[in-house]
């Protein structure tokens, strides 16, 4: 897990070099943190069990541009990867291989008082399992619609580099062809929460 954080940190650092000469109205933000994902599947064979991803490193890159005095239009690409785990009711945990997610959202952001800001976005998320086994043995299915809300805090001391912290919540419905073949008719609502540190480059980085 720690090695993956360092690799993501290296990607984030590379964005600094790439963002040296951004257009005046374009802002790029990168956020690196951790994500919790709720249960993907709940079932009972002999005893109940849940299947959900482990706590995952998460990297988000956002491009934004002002659309008024107080509003910013933005597009975000979000990636996370972790072990898929089965949690039995007795407390046992079994690894089921690695799964990654890639999400894309577009939305609006508005600064609030005292260094806070909030944004809303809509888009889609796609699952990428490392192996075609278990609930992904027939593929991961279509892109799922996703809605997201993010709250940020940027202290004045870090305004030069757009430094801040952010909490992101998003939700989507999850089902795969293998689950449907086993009689799961309704997609399950999945909640994801991430906490991250972010930096910004380009016009309006301090906003």
Q: Could you characterize the architecture of this molecule?
A:
- With 207 residues, the chain is mainly beta.
- It has one domain (2-202): Beta Barrel (Porin), CATH 2.40.160.
- 11% of the residues lie in helices and 57% in strands.
- It contains 2 helices and 10 strands.
- It has helices spanning 2-18, 177-181, and strands spanning 27-37, 41-44, 48-53, 56-66, 72-88, 93-111, 116-129, 144-153, 164-174, 188-202.
- The protein has an 8-stranded antiparallel beta barrel with strand order 1-4-5-6-7-8-9-10.
- A hairpin with a 3-residue loop joins strand 2 (41-44) and strand 3 (48-53).
- The longest helix has 17 residues, at 2-18.
- The protein is elongated, with a radius of gyration of 19 Å.
- The two termini are 32 Å apart.
- The model is unreliable at 11-22 (pLDDT under 50).
CATH architecture title: Beta Barrel
Mean pLDDT: 85
Radius of gyration, in angstroms, nearest whole number: 19 Å
Number of helices: 2
* Shape summary: elongated
Biggest sheet layout: 8 strands, antiparallel, barrel
Q: Uncertain spans, ≥5 residues at pLDDT below 50? A: 11-22
Helical amount among residues, as a percent range? 10-25%
Element order, helices and strands?
A: HEEEEEEEEEHE
The portion of residues forming beta strands comes to: over 45%
In total, the number of strands is 10
